Amino acid sequence: MTVTHHPNLTTLIAFSAGTLDEPYAAVIATHLAMSEAGRKTVRQINTIGGALLSAEPDAAMADGALDRLLDAAGDEPLQTPPAPDHALPAPLASYLPGGLESVRWKWTGPGVAVADLPVQRRSPSRLMLLRVGAGRRVPEHSHGGHELTLIIKGAYKDRFGVFAAGDIADHDEDVEHQPIAEDGEDCICMVAVDAPLNFRSRLIRTLQPLFGM
What we know:
alpha+beta; Jelly Rolls; 6-stranded antiparallel beta sheet; 3-stranded antiparallel beta sheet; 6 helices; 24% strand
């Protein structure tokens, strides 16, 4: 698999630092499972971060700090994760124990459907799958916040190029585009967003509450 489009460096640094919200971290983890180049970059970031941390002066811990940490961790038994669908990257498969065939899609427009993925922690952002039928297009839009879109199957093209399996689009509110699925196969994406899309069409904006996007 040749991956051409990668996350922004700031996004990878946030992933390495553990500061990404679960939906964004899940998309990045899935991308890394599909991209050796991405894994190499994160290893380099981790090495630099470790060196910087080692250079920091030692800080004394307050009395009883370890006990309070262990108490906060609790004693709940670890949950055994479901057996993954080996046709999917492991981070995504953990959200879809039944594979893509088990997804319950919600129609959002001609040739376009979405399905929410449940996150384990309360989160202000959203994790979902997006399916665009072969040759179909998503209405032209910009983003209300930060959007990560990872291609799982198929491909789409927009003004930034062609995005195929493993490629990721890392967009902010300054980006406006219109993804068009390539012919021959539906395009299925894993998406993390923290705000609704801003559609250019007035009609689409009016119907947007019904679409859930």
